[in-house]
Design a protein that fits this description.
The protein is of the alpha+beta class. Helix content is 27%, strand content 30%. Helix 1 (2-19) packs antiparallel against helix 5, helix 5 packs across helix 12 and helix 6 packs across helix 17. The chain is elongated.
Length: 622
Protein backbone atom coordinates (compact mmCIF):
# COMPACT_ATOMS: atom_id res chain seq x y z
CA UNK A 1 0.00 0.00 0.00
CA UNK A 2 2.89 2.39 0.72
CA UNK A 3 4.15 1.84 -2.82
CA UNK A 4 0.77 2.72 -4.28
CA UNK A 5 0.38 5.84 -2.14
CA UNK A 6 3.97 6.90 -2.80
CA UNK A 7 3.41 6.32 -6.51
CA UNK A 8 0.34 8.55 -6.35
CA UNK A 9 2.34 11.29 -4.62
CA UNK A 10 5.24 11.05 -7.06
CA UNK A 11 2.77 11.14 -9.95
CA UNK A 12 1.21 14.31 -8.53
CA UNK A 13 4.58 15.97 -8.15
CA UNK A 14 5.69 14.85 -11.60
CA UNK A 15 2.50 16.06 -13.26
CA UNK A 16 2.68 19.37 -11.34
CA UNK A 17 6.24 19.98 -12.44
CA UNK A 18 5.74 18.80 -16.02
CA UNK A 19 2.66 20.95 -16.58
CA UNK A 20 4.40 23.95 -15.05
CA UNK A 21 7.06 24.12 -17.77
CA UNK A 22 6.94 26.94 -20.30
CA UNK A 23 5.00 25.92 -23.41
CA UNK A 24 7.15 25.17 -26.50
CA UNK A 25 5.33 24.63 -29.86
CA UNK A 26 6.11 21.02 -31.10
CA UNK A 27 7.03 19.99 -34.61
CA UNK A 28 3.62 19.54 -36.25
CA UNK A 29 4.46 16.22 -37.94
CA UNK A 30 5.88 14.79 -34.72
CA UNK A 31 2.91 16.07 -32.78
CA UNK A 32 0.43 14.32 -35.12
CA UNK A 33 2.38 11.06 -34.99
CA UNK A 34 2.58 11.12 -31.18
CA UNK A 35 -1.11 11.96 -30.91
CA UNK A 36 -2.10 9.01 -33.13
CA UNK A 37 0.06 6.61 -31.11
CA UNK A 38 -1.42 7.82 -27.83
CA UNK A 39 -4.99 7.36 -29.07
CA UNK A 40 -4.19 3.88 -30.40
CA UNK A 41 -2.61 2.87 -27.10
CA UNK A 42 -5.63 4.08 -25.17
CA UNK A 43 -7.82 1.66 -27.16
CA UNK A 44 -5.47 -1.31 -27.55
CA UNK A 45 -4.42 -1.42 -23.88
CA UNK A 46 -7.97 -0.87 -22.65
CA UNK A 47 -6.82 1.91 -20.30
CA UNK A 48 -10.39 2.92 -19.52
CA UNK A 49 -11.27 -0.58 -18.26
CA UNK A 50 -8.16 -0.91 -16.12
CA UNK A 51 -8.06 2.54 -14.57
CA UNK A 52 -9.22 2.25 -10.92
CA UNK A 53 -12.45 4.13 -10.37
CA UNK A 54 -12.80 5.31 -13.99
CA UNK A 55 -16.34 4.92 -15.34
CA UNK A 56 -16.19 6.99 -18.51
CA UNK A 57 -15.98 5.86 -22.13
CA UNK A 58 -12.66 4.90 -23.73
CA UNK A 59 -13.11 7.56 -26.41
CA UNK A 60 -13.09 10.24 -23.72
CA UNK A 61 -9.44 9.40 -23.07
CA UNK A 62 -8.48 10.10 -26.70
CA UNK A 63 -7.18 13.48 -27.73
CA UNK A 64 -9.09 15.27 -30.47
CA UNK A 65 -7.20 15.83 -33.71
CA UNK A 66 -9.86 16.68 -36.23
CA UNK A 67 -9.50 20.44 -36.00
CA UNK A 68 -7.12 22.50 -38.07
CA UNK A 69 -3.64 22.87 -36.59
CA UNK A 70 -4.07 26.63 -36.39
CA UNK A 71 -7.31 26.16 -34.48
CA UNK A 72 -5.66 23.80 -32.00
CA UNK A 73 -2.80 26.21 -31.46
CA UNK A 74 -5.16 29.12 -30.96
CA UNK A 75 -7.37 27.21 -28.52
CA UNK A 76 -4.31 25.96 -26.66
CA UNK A 77 -2.93 29.46 -26.29
CA UNK A 78 -6.26 30.74 -24.96
CA UNK A 79 -6.46 27.87 -22.46
CA UNK A 80 -3.00 28.62 -21.16
CA UNK A 81 -2.59 30.98 -18.25
CA UNK A 82 0.19 33.29 -17.17
CA UNK A 83 0.10 31.34 -13.89
CA UNK A 84 2.40 28.38 -14.47
CA UNK A 85 0.77 26.49 -11.57
CA UNK A 86 -2.70 26.54 -13.09
CA UNK A 87 -2.38 23.34 -15.19
CA UNK A 88 -1.12 21.37 -12.19
CA UNK A 89 -3.86 22.71 -9.96
CA UNK A 90 -6.56 21.98 -12.55
CA UNK A 91 -5.17 18.48 -12.94
CA UNK A 92 -5.28 17.76 -9.21
CA UNK A 93 -8.84 19.09 -8.92
CA UNK A 94 -9.91 16.94 -11.85
CA UNK A 95 -8.36 13.90 -10.20
CA UNK A 96 -10.23 14.46 -6.96
CA UNK A 97 -13.51 15.12 -8.78
CA UNK A 98 -13.15 12.04 -11.00
CA UNK A 99 -12.27 9.70 -8.14
CA UNK A 100 -14.71 10.13 -5.24
CA UNK A 101 -13.98 7.96 -2.24
CA UNK A 102 -17.36 6.23 -2.56
CA UNK A 103 -16.05 4.23 -5.56
CA UNK A 104 -13.19 2.85 -3.50
CA UNK A 105 -14.87 2.48 -0.14
CA UNK A 106 -13.50 -0.97 0.65
CA UNK A 107 -10.03 0.08 -0.43
CA UNK A 108 -10.21 3.12 1.85
CA UNK A 109 -11.53 0.94 4.64
CA UNK A 110 -8.57 -1.41 4.44
CA UNK A 111 -6.01 1.37 3.98
CA UNK A 112 -7.22 3.25 7.02
CA UNK A 113 -6.94 0.11 9.11
CA UNK A 114 -10.53 0.08 10.34
CA UNK A 115 -11.09 -3.55 9.36
CA UNK A 116 -8.94 -6.63 8.83
CA UNK A 117 -9.93 -7.34 5.24
CA UNK A 118 -6.96 -8.75 3.27
CA UNK A 119 -9.21 -9.56 0.31
CA UNK A 120 -10.65 -6.06 -0.05
CA UNK A 121 -10.98 -4.73 -3.58
CA UNK A 122 -9.07 -1.82 -5.03
CA UNK A 123 -11.04 -0.16 -7.78
CA UNK A 124 -12.93 -3.33 -8.47
CA UNK A 125 -9.83 -5.59 -8.59
CA UNK A 126 -9.36 -8.12 -5.80
CA UNK A 127 -6.15 -8.16 -3.80
CA UNK A 128 -4.22 -11.26 -2.86
CA UNK A 129 -4.46 -12.90 0.52
CA UNK A 130 -1.97 -12.12 3.29
CA UNK A 131 -1.64 -13.62 6.75
CA UNK A 132 0.97 -11.18 8.08
CA UNK A 133 -0.87 -9.24 10.78
CA UNK A 134 0.11 -7.09 13.76
CA UNK A 135 -1.65 -5.20 16.54
CA UNK A 136 -3.00 -1.80 15.64
CA UNK A 137 -1.73 1.27 17.53
CA UNK A 138 -4.13 3.01 19.87
CA UNK A 139 -3.27 6.59 18.94
CA UNK A 140 -0.66 9.18 18.04
CA UNK A 141 1.05 12.10 19.77
CA UNK A 142 0.37 15.67 18.71
CA UNK A 143 2.85 18.51 19.37
CA UNK A 144 1.62 21.62 21.18
CA UNK A 145 3.26 24.41 23.16
CA UNK A 146 2.79 25.79 26.66
CA UNK A 147 4.23 29.11 27.80
CA UNK A 148 4.49 30.85 31.16
CA UNK A 149 6.49 33.60 32.87
CA UNK A 150 8.49 34.41 35.97
CA UNK A 151 9.43 37.78 37.41
CA UNK A 152 7.95 40.72 39.26
CA UNK A 153 4.22 40.99 39.81
CA UNK A 154 3.89 44.72 39.16
CA UNK A 155 0.81 46.62 40.33
CA UNK A 156 -0.14 50.01 38.97
CA UNK A 157 -1.86 52.60 41.12
CA UNK A 158 -3.34 55.96 40.17
CA UNK A 159 -1.99 59.06 41.92
CA UNK A 160 -3.72 62.46 41.71
CA UNK A 161 -2.19 65.84 42.56
CA UNK A 162 -2.68 69.54 41.81
CA UNK A 163 -0.46 72.31 40.52
CA UNK A 164 -1.33 76.01 40.60
CA UNK A 165 -0.03 79.39 39.57
CA UNK A 166 1.23 81.01 42.78
CA UNK A 167 -0.47 84.42 42.51
CA UNK A 168 -0.66 86.40 45.74
CA UNK A 169 -2.11 89.71 46.84
CA UNK A 170 0.52 92.36 47.47
CA UNK A 171 0.55 93.91 50.91
CA UNK A 172 -1.41 97.11 51.53
CA UNK A 173 1.83 98.48 52.96
CA UNK A 174 4.40 98.97 50.19
CA UNK A 175 8.02 99.99 50.33
CA UNK A 176 10.24 101.41 47.61
CA UNK A 177 13.69 102.94 47.04
CA UNK A 178 14.40 106.55 46.04
CA UNK A 179 16.47 109.63 47.07
CA UNK A 180 16.12 113.39 47.49
CA UNK A 181 16.97 114.17 43.83
CA UNK A 182 14.26 111.85 42.42
CA UNK A 183 11.69 113.25 44.83
CA UNK A 184 12.59 116.85 43.92
CA UNK A 185 12.49 116.18 40.17
CA UNK A 186 9.55 113.75 40.22
CA UNK A 187 7.54 115.99 37.95
CA UNK A 188 10.21 115.80 35.28
CA UNK A 189 9.22 113.47 32.45
CA UNK A 190 10.65 109.97 32.74
CA UNK A 191 12.77 110.88 35.73
CA UNK A 192 13.44 107.20 36.50
CA UNK A 193 15.43 106.87 33.26
CA UNK A 194 18.20 109.20 34.53
CA UNK A 195 20.20 106.79 36.65
CA UNK A 196 23.77 108.18 36.53
CA UNK A 197 24.18 110.56 39.58
CA UNK A 198 26.65 113.51 39.62
CA UNK A 199 27.59 116.31 42.01
CA UNK A 200 28.78 119.40 40.20
CA UNK A 201 29.62 123.13 40.48
CA UNK A 202 28.31 125.88 38.18
CA UNK A 203 30.97 128.06 36.58
CA UNK A 204 30.32 131.41 34.90
CA UNK A 205 32.07 132.37 31.69
CA UNK A 206 32.52 135.61 29.71
CA UNK A 207 29.26 135.10 27.94
CA UNK A 208 27.34 133.54 30.85
CA UNK A 209 27.33 129.78 31.73
CA UNK A 210 30.58 127.95 31.13
CA UNK A 211 29.47 124.77 29.30
CA UNK A 212 32.95 123.31 29.11
CA UNK A 213 33.33 122.45 32.77
CA UNK A 214 31.21 121.71 35.88
CA UNK A 215 27.45 121.58 35.74
CA UNK A 216 27.43 123.49 32.46
CA UNK A 217 28.57 120.37 30.59
CA UNK A 218 25.43 118.50 31.70
CA UNK A 219 23.07 121.47 31.56
CA UNK A 220 23.86 121.78 27.87
CA UNK A 221 22.47 118.21 27.43
CA UNK A 222 19.07 118.89 29.01
CA UNK A 223 17.36 119.93 25.79
CA UNK A 224 18.74 116.83 24.08
CA UNK A 225 17.02 114.67 26.73
CA UNK A 226 20.29 113.27 28.01
CA UNK A 227 20.20 114.92 31.47
CA UNK A 228 17.60 116.15 33.95
CA UNK A 229 17.81 119.67 35.53
CA UNK A 230 20.26 120.21 38.44
CA UNK A 231 19.07 120.41 42.07
CA UNK A 232 20.93 122.70 44.51
CA UNK A 233 22.30 121.05 47.64
CA UNK A 234 21.11 123.30 50.48
CA UNK A 235 22.47 126.84 50.01
CA UNK A 236 25.85 125.80 48.69
CA UNK A 237 27.23 126.20 45.17
CA UNK A 238 27.04 122.41 44.72
CA UNK A 239 24.29 120.71 42.74
CA UNK A 240 22.97 117.21 42.04
CA UNK A 241 22.36 116.33 38.42
CA UNK A 242 21.33 112.97 36.98
CA UNK A 243 21.92 111.91 33.37
CA UNK A 244 21.54 108.86 31.20
CA UNK A 245 25.30 108.82 30.69
CA UNK A 246 28.08 108.97 33.25
CA UNK A 247 30.40 112.03 32.98
CA UNK A 248 33.83 111.46 34.41
CA UNK A 249 37.24 113.16 34.24
CA UNK A 250 35.74 116.65 33.85
CA UNK A 251 36.62 119.57 36.11
CA UNK A 252 33.83 120.47 38.50
CA UNK A 253 31.98 117.09 38.14
CA UNK A 254 32.03 114.21 40.66
CA UNK A 255 30.39 110.99 39.51
CA UNK A 256 28.36 109.48 42.39
CA UNK A 257 27.38 106.18 40.71
CA UNK A 258 24.16 104.54 39.54
CA UNK A 259 20.93 105.27 41.40
CA UNK A 260 17.41 103.80 41.20
CA UNK A 261 13.89 105.03 41.81
CA UNK A 262 11.21 102.36 42.47
CA UNK A 263 8.66 104.68 44.05
CA UNK A 264 7.20 106.21 40.89
CA UNK A 265 4.11 103.93 40.96
CA UNK A 266 3.34 104.68 44.57
CA UNK A 267 3.83 108.44 44.06
CA UNK A 268 1.43 108.33 41.12
CA UNK A 269 -1.17 106.20 42.96
CA UNK A 270 -3.67 108.51 44.64
CA UNK A 271 -4.73 105.58 46.86
CA UNK A 272 -1.25 105.46 48.41
CA UNK A 273 -0.07 107.71 51.26
CA UNK A 274 3.57 108.13 52.32
CA UNK A 275 3.77 106.90 55.90
CA UNK A 276 7.50 106.75 56.71
CA UNK A 277 11.02 106.93 55.28
CA UNK A 278 14.56 106.00 56.29
CA UNK A 279 17.66 107.57 54.69
CA UNK A 280 20.38 104.97 54.38
CA UNK A 281 22.97 107.21 52.65
CA UNK A 282 23.31 110.99 53.09
CA UNK A 283 24.79 113.43 50.55
CA UNK A 284 24.35 116.47 52.81
CA UNK A 285 22.57 115.60 56.03
CA UNK A 286 22.56 119.28 57.17
CA UNK A 287 20.39 120.28 54.23
CA UNK A 288 18.44 117.00 54.29
CA UNK A 289 19.80 115.84 50.94
CA UNK A 290 19.59 112.05 51.02
CA UNK A 291 21.42 109.89 48.50
CA UNK A 292 19.38 106.67 49.18
CA UNK A 293 16.22 106.16 51.21
CA UNK A 294 13.56 103.51 51.85
CA UNK A 295 10.06 104.95 51.74
CA UNK A 296 6.92 103.22 53.05
CA UNK A 297 3.46 103.86 51.58
CA UNK A 298 0.07 102.75 52.83
CA UNK A 299 -2.21 101.94 49.86
CA UNK A 300 -5.94 101.32 49.67
CA UNK A 301 -5.78 99.08 46.50
CA UNK A 302 -3.60 95.99 46.97
CA UNK A 303 -2.22 94.45 43.78
CA UNK A 304 -1.20 90.90 42.69
CA UNK A 305 2.15 89.26 42.23
CA UNK A 306 2.79 86.04 40.22
CA UNK A 307 5.37 83.88 42.00
CA UNK A 308 5.34 81.15 39.28
CA UNK A 309 3.96 77.61 39.02
CA UNK A 310 3.80 75.69 42.28
CA UNK A 311 4.34 71.93 41.70
CA UNK A 312 5.11 70.91 45.27
CA UNK A 313 2.15 68.52 45.56
CA UNK A 314 3.26 66.57 42.46
CA UNK A 315 7.01 66.55 43.11
CA UNK A 316 6.96 62.95 44.39
CA UNK A 317 5.58 61.74 41.05
CA UNK A 318 7.30 64.01 38.53
CA UNK A 319 10.72 62.86 39.68
CA UNK A 320 9.83 59.16 40.03
CA UNK A 321 10.86 56.97 37.04
CA UNK A 322 8.20 54.44 38.06
CA UNK A 323 5.47 57.02 37.45
CA UNK A 324 4.17 58.36 34.17
CA UNK A 325 1.80 61.25 33.58
CA UNK A 326 -1.56 60.11 32.35
CA UNK A 327 -3.81 63.17 32.17
CA UNK A 328 -3.59 66.86 32.97
CA UNK A 329 -6.85 68.77 33.30
CA UNK A 330 -7.08 72.54 33.79
CA UNK A 331 -9.59 73.27 36.53
CA UNK A 332 -9.31 77.10 36.60
CA UNK A 333 -8.57 79.60 33.83
CA UNK A 334 -7.67 83.27 34.10
CA UNK A 335 -11.11 84.15 32.74
CA UNK A 336 -12.56 82.61 35.91
CA UNK A 337 -10.83 85.36 37.99
CA UNK A 338 -11.28 88.63 36.05
CA UNK A 339 -9.46 90.91 38.51
CA UNK A 340 -6.31 88.75 38.43
CA UNK A 341 -6.52 88.44 34.65
CA UNK A 342 -6.73 92.25 34.36
CA UNK A 343 -4.10 93.03 37.00
CA UNK A 344 -1.51 90.66 35.47
CA UNK A 345 -2.63 91.09 31.83
CA UNK A 346 -3.16 87.32 31.43
CA UNK A 347 -4.81 85.65 28.40
CA UNK A 348 -8.34 84.41 29.09
CA UNK A 349 -7.34 80.76 28.53
CA UNK A 350 -4.27 80.95 30.77
CA UNK A 351 -4.45 78.01 33.21
CA UNK A 352 -4.23 78.91 36.89
CA UNK A 353 -4.92 75.45 38.40
CA UNK A 354 -4.53 71.89 37.04
CA UNK A 355 -5.28 68.35 38.24
CA UNK A 356 -2.70 65.74 37.19
CA UNK A 357 -3.14 61.97 37.21
CA UNK A 358 -0.07 59.71 37.33
CA UNK A 359 0.23 55.93 36.92
CA UNK A 360 2.82 54.58 39.34
CA UNK A 361 4.18 51.04 39.34
CA UNK A 362 5.40 49.05 42.31
CA UNK A 363 6.37 45.41 42.91
CA UNK A 364 3.67 43.50 44.80
CA UNK A 365 5.45 40.13 44.70
CA UNK A 366 7.99 38.09 42.75
CA UNK A 367 7.42 34.58 41.45
CA UNK A 368 6.17 32.44 38.56
CA UNK A 369 2.77 31.46 37.16
CA UNK A 370 4.13 28.27 35.57
CA UNK A 371 2.00 25.15 36.05
CA UNK A 372 3.65 22.98 33.41
CA UNK A 373 1.50 20.04 32.24
CA UNK A 374 2.97 16.55 32.35
CA UNK A 375 4.90 15.48 29.28
CA UNK A 376 6.14 18.99 28.49
CA UNK A 377 9.84 19.75 28.00
CA UNK A 378 11.43 23.20 28.24
CA UNK A 379 12.28 24.41 24.75
CA UNK A 380 13.17 28.08 25.22
CA UNK A 381 13.87 30.56 28.02
CA UNK A 382 13.84 34.18 26.87
CA UNK A 383 14.32 37.45 28.72
CA UNK A 384 11.46 39.79 27.79
CA UNK A 385 12.49 42.60 30.15
CA UNK A 386 12.78 45.70 27.90
CA UNK A 387 15.13 47.31 30.45
CA UNK A 388 17.64 44.46 30.36
CA UNK A 389 21.05 45.52 29.02
CA UNK A 390 23.27 42.85 30.51
CA UNK A 391 24.47 45.01 33.38
CA UNK A 392 21.66 44.06 35.77
CA UNK A 393 19.52 40.92 36.26
CA UNK A 394 16.63 40.23 33.89
CA UNK A 395 13.37 40.96 35.68
CA UNK A 396 10.97 39.00 33.43
CA UNK A 397 11.51 35.61 31.74
CA UNK A 398 9.22 33.84 29.26
CA UNK A 399 9.36 30.03 29.08
CA UNK A 400 8.24 27.94 26.09
CA UNK A 401 7.57 24.21 26.58
CA UNK A 402 7.08 21.61 23.87
CA UNK A 403 4.28 19.22 24.83
CA UNK A 404 2.88 16.00 23.38
CA UNK A 405 -0.85 15.41 23.59
CA UNK A 406 -2.25 11.95 22.87
CA UNK A 407 -4.75 11.76 20.00
CA UNK A 408 -7.10 8.78 19.83
CA UNK A 409 -7.51 6.81 16.59
CA UNK A 410 -10.44 4.48 15.81
CA UNK A 411 -10.17 0.80 16.77
CA UNK A 412 -10.15 -1.85 14.05
CA UNK A 413 -12.87 -4.44 13.84
CA UNK A 414 -10.59 -7.24 15.02
CA UNK A 415 -7.88 -5.35 16.86
CA UNK A 416 -5.27 -6.20 14.22
CA UNK A 417 -4.25 -5.01 10.75
CA UNK A 418 -2.76 -7.15 8.03
CA UNK A 419 -0.49 -6.61 5.06
CA UNK A 420 -1.72 -7.37 1.55
CA UNK A 421 -0.75 -7.37 -2.09
CA UNK A 422 -2.83 -5.10 -4.31
CA UNK A 423 -3.62 -5.49 -7.98
CA UNK A 424 -3.55 -2.21 -9.90
CA UNK A 425 -4.56 -2.77 -13.51
CA UNK A 426 -2.12 -5.29 -14.97
CA UNK A 427 0.57 -4.62 -12.31
CA UNK A 428 0.77 -6.44 -8.99
CA UNK A 429 2.29 -4.29 -6.23
CA UNK A 430 3.50 -6.48 -3.39
CA UNK A 431 3.80 -4.77 0.00
CA UNK A 432 4.46 -5.59 3.60
CA UNK A 433 3.01 -2.38 4.97
CA UNK A 434 1.26 -0.68 7.86
CA UNK A 435 -1.81 0.83 6.14
CA UNK A 436 -2.40 3.31 8.98
CA UNK A 437 -0.49 6.07 7.18
CA UNK A 438 -0.14 5.50 3.44
CA UNK A 439 -3.55 6.31 2.01
CA UNK A 440 -4.25 9.09 4.53
CA UNK A 441 -0.89 10.61 3.58
CA UNK A 442 -1.80 10.44 -0.12
CA UNK A 443 -5.28 11.87 0.42
CA UNK A 444 -3.81 14.64 2.57
CA UNK A 445 -1.38 15.60 -0.19
CA UNK A 446 -4.22 15.67 -2.72
CA UNK A 447 -6.25 17.92 -0.44
CA UNK A 448 -3.20 20.14 0.10
CA UNK A 449 -3.02 20.68 -3.67
CA UNK A 450 -6.75 21.38 -3.70
CA UNK A 451 -6.43 23.98 -0.96
CA UNK A 452 -3.46 25.49 -2.77
CA UNK A 453 -5.69 26.12 -5.78
CA UNK A 454 -8.32 27.73 -3.57
CA UNK A 455 -5.84 29.92 -1.72
CA UNK A 456 -3.99 31.21 -4.78
CA UNK A 457 -4.61 34.93 -5.01
CA UNK A 458 -7.44 34.76 -2.42
CA UNK A 459 -5.81 37.49 -0.34
CA UNK A 460 -5.42 39.83 -3.31
CA UNK A 461 -1.82 38.84 -3.96
CA UNK A 462 -0.60 36.08 -6.24
CA UNK A 463 0.64 33.79 -3.49
CA UNK A 464 -0.30 30.31 -2.28
CA UNK A 465 -1.38 29.63 1.34
CA UNK A 466 -1.07 33.26 2.44
CA UNK A 467 -1.65 33.76 6.16
CA UNK A 468 -2.40 36.41 8.79
CA UNK A 469 -0.15 37.59 11.61
CA UNK A 470 -2.29 37.42 14.76
CA UNK A 471 -1.36 38.31 18.34
CA UNK A 472 -2.81 37.78 21.79
CA UNK A 473 -2.01 39.54 25.06
CA UNK A 474 -1.39 38.35 28.60
CA UNK A 475 -0.58 40.44 31.68
CA UNK A 476 2.48 39.31 33.64
CA UNK A 477 1.26 38.00 36.97
CA UNK A 478 -2.07 39.73 36.43
CA UNK A 479 -5.67 38.73 35.76
CA UNK A 480 -5.83 39.33 32.03
CA UNK A 481 -5.04 36.47 29.63
CA UNK A 482 -6.29 36.07 26.06
CA UNK A 483 -3.61 33.53 25.05
CA UNK A 484 -4.76 29.89 25.13
CA UNK A 485 -1.17 28.58 24.97
CA UNK A 486 -0.01 30.52 28.02
CA UNK A 487 -0.82 29.56 31.59
CA UNK A 488 -4.45 29.46 32.69
CA UNK A 489 -6.83 31.03 30.17
CA UNK A 490 -8.69 33.17 32.69
CA UNK A 491 -11.15 34.55 30.17
CA UNK A 492 -12.40 31.31 28.66
CA UNK A 493 -15.19 33.11 26.80
CA UNK A 494 -12.77 35.77 25.47
CA UNK A 495 -15.31 38.47 26.38
CA UNK A 496 -12.61 40.99 27.26
CA UNK A 497 -10.39 40.09 24.29
CA UNK A 498 -10.20 42.05 21.06
CA UNK A 499 -11.31 40.85 17.61
CA UNK A 500 -7.85 39.62 16.58
CA UNK A 501 -7.47 37.62 19.81
CA UNK A 502 -10.85 35.98 19.26
CA UNK A 503 -9.92 35.22 15.65
CA UNK A 504 -6.62 33.71 16.81
CA UNK A 505 -8.40 31.46 19.31
CA UNK A 506 -10.71 30.19 16.56
CA UNK A 507 -7.76 29.55 14.23
CA UNK A 508 -5.86 27.73 16.98
CA UNK A 509 -8.88 25.49 17.56
CA UNK A 510 -8.50 24.43 13.91
CA UNK A 511 -4.76 23.90 14.50
CA UNK A 512 -4.13 26.36 11.69
CA UNK A 513 -1.48 28.51 13.44
CA UNK A 514 2.32 28.43 13.75
CA UNK A 515 3.85 30.05 16.86
CA UNK A 516 6.42 32.76 16.04
CA UNK A 517 7.48 34.18 19.40
CA UNK A 518 6.76 36.49 22.33
CA UNK A 519 7.70 40.08 23.12
CA UNK A 520 6.92 42.67 25.79
CA UNK A 521 4.23 45.12 24.66
CA UNK A 522 3.97 47.18 27.88
CA UNK A 523 6.92 47.80 30.17
CA UNK A 524 7.67 49.38 33.52
CA UNK A 525 10.74 50.15 35.59
CA UNK A 526 10.35 46.72 37.17
CA UNK A 527 10.13 44.64 33.99
CA UNK A 528 7.40 43.60 31.58
CA UNK A 529 3.74 44.29 32.37
CA UNK A 530 2.10 42.75 29.29
CA UNK A 531 3.41 40.22 26.77
CA UNK A 532 2.23 39.57 23.22
CA UNK A 533 2.35 36.12 21.64
CA UNK A 534 2.55 36.12 17.85
CA UNK A 535 1.33 33.48 15.39
CA UNK A 536 1.01 33.00 11.64
CA UNK A 537 -2.43 31.52 10.88
CA UNK A 538 -3.40 29.96 7.55
CA UNK A 539 -7.10 29.17 7.79
CA UNK A 540 -6.71 25.39 7.90
CA UNK A 541 -4.47 22.71 9.34
CA UNK A 542 -3.36 21.75 5.81
CA UNK A 543 -2.27 25.32 5.10
CA UNK A 544 -0.26 25.39 8.30
CA UNK A 545 1.35 21.99 7.63
CA UNK A 546 2.44 22.94 4.10
CA UNK A 547 3.72 26.34 5.28
CA UNK A 548 5.81 24.73 8.05
CA UNK A 549 7.18 22.14 5.65
CA UNK A 550 7.91 24.76 3.01
CA UNK A 551 9.72 27.03 5.46
CA UNK A 552 11.83 24.06 6.58
CA UNK A 553 12.59 22.73 3.10
CA UNK A 554 13.28 26.11 1.49
CA UNK A 555 14.97 27.79 4.48
CA UNK A 556 12.44 30.64 4.64
CA UNK A 557 12.26 33.07 7.59
CA UNK A 558 9.21 33.48 9.82
CA UNK A 559 10.32 36.99 10.83
CA UNK A 560 10.09 37.78 14.53
CA UNK A 561 7.40 38.30 17.16
CA UNK A 562 7.05 42.02 16.45
CA UNK A 563 7.20 41.66 12.66
CA UNK A 564 6.03 38.19 11.58
CA UNK A 565 6.35 37.12 7.94
CA UNK A 566 3.15 35.23 7.24
CA UNK A 567 2.92 35.68 3.47
CA UNK A 568 2.25 32.75 1.18
CA UNK A 569 4.52 30.99 -1.28
CA UNK A 570 5.24 32.30 -4.72
CA UNK A 571 4.49 29.90 -7.57
CA UNK A 572 8.17 29.09 -8.02
CA UNK A 573 8.60 28.45 -4.27
CA UNK A 574 5.58 26.15 -4.13
CA UNK A 575 6.93 24.12 -7.07
CA UNK A 576 10.07 23.42 -5.03
CA UNK A 577 8.19 21.87 -2.08
CA UNK A 578 8.32 18.08 -1.96
CA UNK A 579 4.81 17.12 -0.79
CA UNK A 580 5.85 13.47 -0.63
CA UNK A 581 8.22 14.48 2.18
CA UNK A 582 5.59 16.33 4.26
CA UNK A 583 4.19 14.88 7.49
CA UNK A 584 0.41 15.22 7.20
CA UNK A 585 -0.33 13.16 10.31
CA UNK A 586 -1.64 16.20 12.19
CA UNK A 587 -4.32 16.46 9.49
CA UNK A 588 -5.43 12.86 9.05
CA UNK A 589 -5.16 12.06 12.77
CA UNK A 590 -8.02 14.50 13.27
CA UNK A 591 -9.97 12.71 10.56
CA UNK A 592 -9.46 9.35 12.25
CA UNK A 593 -10.20 10.73 15.71
CA UNK A 594 -13.55 12.03 14.51
CA UNK A 595 -14.41 8.58 13.18
CA UNK A 596 -13.54 6.92 16.50
CA UNK A 597 -16.90 7.73 18.08
CA UNK A 598 -18.95 6.28 15.19
CA UNK A 599 -20.55 2.85 15.01
CA UNK A 600 -17.79 0.37 14.01
CA UNK A 601 -20.39 -1.48 11.92
CA UNK A 602 -20.76 1.52 9.61
CA UNK A 603 -17.12 2.54 9.30
CA UNK A 604 -17.11 2.48 5.51
CA UNK A 605 -20.00 4.90 5.32
CA UNK A 606 -18.46 7.13 7.98
CA UNK A 607 -15.08 7.25 6.23
CA UNK A 608 -16.68 7.88 2.87
CA UNK A 609 -18.91 10.70 4.14
CA UNK A 610 -16.16 12.32 6.18
CA UNK A 611 -13.45 12.35 3.51
CA UNK A 612 -15.87 13.37 0.74
CA UNK A 613 -17.03 16.22 2.98
CA UNK A 614 -13.37 17.18 3.50
CA UNK A 615 -12.76 17.20 -0.26
CA UNK A 616 -15.72 19.45 -0.99
CA UNK A 617 -16.11 21.80 1.96
CA UNK A 618 -12.77 21.26 3.76
CA UNK A 619 -14.86 20.62 6.89
CA UNK A 620 -14.76 17.08 8.33
CA UNK A 621 -18.18 15.44 8.64
CA UNK A 622 -18.75 13.45 11.80
Amino acid sequence: MRCLASTALLLLVFVSQALAQTYQPPNLAEFQTALDRANSAAVNNDIAANMPGYQGAANDLQAKSGEEVATLQRDGAVASSTNVMKPAIVQSNAYVAANPVSENAAWVKGALGVANDPTASAGGVTGTTSTTCHAQGGGTDQATIYTCESGNNVVTTSQVCQTYQDIALTSATRTCQTDSYYEAQASYANIGAFTEAHQCVIFAGPGGLNTGIGCGVMISQINAGNCAPPKQIGSTSNYLQYCKTAYTGITGITYLGRKADTCSAQRADTGCTRSSEICTSWIDEASGTCGAKTVTYTCANAGYVDNGLNVTACAAFTGNPACSLGTSTCTQHASDVPDIMAALALPADFCLKSTLTYSCDSVASTGSDCQVPGGCVLKEQNCIDPNYDGSSPCQTYDYVYACQAAVATPPSATGAICDASWVNGTAIIATADDPDNDLPQALSAINALKEASGSYGASGTLTIFGGDGLKCGKSIGGLSNCCKDSGLLLDANLTSCNADEKKLAAEQKKKACHYIGTYCSNKSLFGCLMKKMTYCCYGSVLGRIVEEAGHSQLGLSWGDAKNPQCGGFSVSQFQQIDLSNVDFSDFYDDKLAQLADNDPNSTVAAITASINSMNTSRTPEK
